[in-house]
Each structure stands twice: as C-alpha cells, then as structure tokens.
Amino acid sequence: xxxxxxxxxxxxxxxxxxxxxxxxxxxxxxxxxxxxxxxxxxxxxxxxxxxxxxxxxxxxxxxxxxxxxxxxxxxxxxxxxxxxxxxxxxxxxxxxxxxxxxxxxxxxxxxxxxxxxxxxxxxxxxxxxxxxxxxxxxxxxxxxxxxxxxxxxxxxxxxxxxxxxxxxxxxxxxxxxxxxxxxxxxx
Length: 187
Prior knowledge:
single chain, 187 residues, mainly alpha, 0% strand, elongated
C-alpha cells in the first residue's frame, strides 16, 4: 500500500513531492510506519523505482512468445509504451526516475540494471530471428540497442510533451521500426 501511494504521488505530482511525510499522510499512516520500511527518502525512491520496473517486467514476461519474434517484440514493447492510463502513470514515474538517475548514483545503478536486462532480452529474441533471404543479417546487439532507444524515445516524448502523439502515433512509430527489422512479417 505504501509503495502504491508513493507511485501515485510520483505519477501525479512528481518526485519532488515524494517525502516520508507526504507518503504517510496520503497512505493514512504515521510517519513512523513509513520509516519502519524506509529509513530515508532515497530508500523509498529506490524501492519504488524497482517496483515500477518489476511490474512492467511481469506484464512482459506473461506474453506468449510462440507468436513469433516480431509479434512477441511488438506485444512486449507495447507494454512499455503509455497506451492506457495505468501505463501512462508508470511511464511518468519511470521517466522521472530515469531523469533523477542522472544525478543519483543509487538510482543510476537501478537504471543500468534495467536497461541491461531489457537489452539482453531484446538481443536474445533478435538472435533467434532467421537470416533474411537477401542482404546481411542485422546485428542483434546493435538492433536491440536501437529498438530500446526507439521505445524509450517514444516514452520520453509522449510523457514530456503530452498531446504531441496519439496512441495510434506511438503504435505506428513502433510498428514502422519493427517493419524495418521484419519486412513482410506483420505476424
């Protein structure tokens, strides 16, 4: 419950409004109750950042990979995009944490861990893709980085400039990139 309150505050008001006092008040518990779990604001933030990452990863892990690489990647990456209210809130929190990671070594470590895990999973899926009939085989390492960069860029732009993109724009941009990796496979 405390984590959910913390994430709600971060999503609606930003990380600057997250404090032991604010979380306790919004959760209807004493400051001591919050401090029982988190001695400092930094501990709360690291825990919350990990929770956002774990919730997203749990949704992605529940997807059916038997649909083929392109369909599996499309479904997994859509889980990272702000395509509904729940994912929008999650993306707001993720972007706020990622920005704060630029100046917080402890949050930077969580961000590095997160990006490395997602990159490894993308690389694994892309490594299993058969070589194209024509042309060179795309490098799974490079393509995984580009795919993660495209997805993170869409998240950042959608969250930091609300109204710039429709949900359809986000999905079209993702599908356009995937079409370049998997020409003729909309599976």
